[in-house]
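Example 5.3 — PfkB family carbohydrate kinase
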Amino acid sequence: MGSGTGGVGAKGVVPKGAVPKGAVVVCVGQVVTDHSFRVDEIEPPPSKVTARGYSVGVGGMAAHAAIAVARLGGRAVFWGRVGRDEAGEALRHALQEEGVDASGLVMAEGARTPLSAVIVDKMGERSIVTYRGERLPADPSGLPLDRLAGAGSVLCDPRWPEAAEAVFRAARERGLPAVLDAEKSEERILRQLVPLAGHAIFARTGLTIFAPGVAPEEGLWRALTSGPLEMAAVTDGEKGVLWRAPGMDGAGRQPSFPVEATNTTGAGDVFHGAYALALAEGQAVEAALRFASAAGALRARDGRTPGREMVEEMVAGGGDVPSVRARRKG
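Solution (predicted structure tokens):
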């Protein structure tokens, strides 16, 4: 698989003028209708809580990542599956309105589109209940894998494992950087997909499921040695990102960017989308992790996916919060 380091300068930063405009990232996996409720506190049951706010929109790991790619200046392609129902049609239109190419979205007759209830408290922490739909097809044979010829990278989540496996194998044949959003999932699915990815980025729960009972550094090493991976990492909130690559003496850490989080929903998904885009643009791993960390932090700050200018301003400022003027542009 490609290392994603082509055209990178000595310090791991793409030289000025060398970043391809609109690098293509193919995102594969989950899309759901998110019903989001803002509350003061998430109370344990039995309880009855009044919401201070409500919204409905696009959710799902790969779908959030695709939207992030589009807002950060890339060309996002999304492959997922929904029912041929009102909710599925609404999601297709919403993705298109975000600038995401959803022409590969599978709309299955007789299936029901997934949805989630997202409850966010005043500290920005969230609890999610997801209904993964019904009768969604598992067979990925209809995916237009030939379109990977024009892509710069791929990103898959574990919610459609058959498609993720097919895309990862096709990406490896083409030498494309391939990123796995190794979120909480069944152990068998993570063990199926991690060896096929070039870059496996775990949530803490995902790494614990993949490598139970060991320290994170050891868990990442087990991921690296499960297949020809180029990098394995685990996101850890305010502690930043712990990562390992072949040939490294121990693990490295990308510090988090200090923000006051108000809504952490989708922050990890934005991180993965930004990382995949950075690889598609030719950024080295360390630069890509920093770019992705800034994007994820900005998403957690106000619950909105940032634009390119905001992320680059944060990266250049060493963690300083972008100005109000730049924030409004995003």
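Remark. The mean pLDDT is 89.
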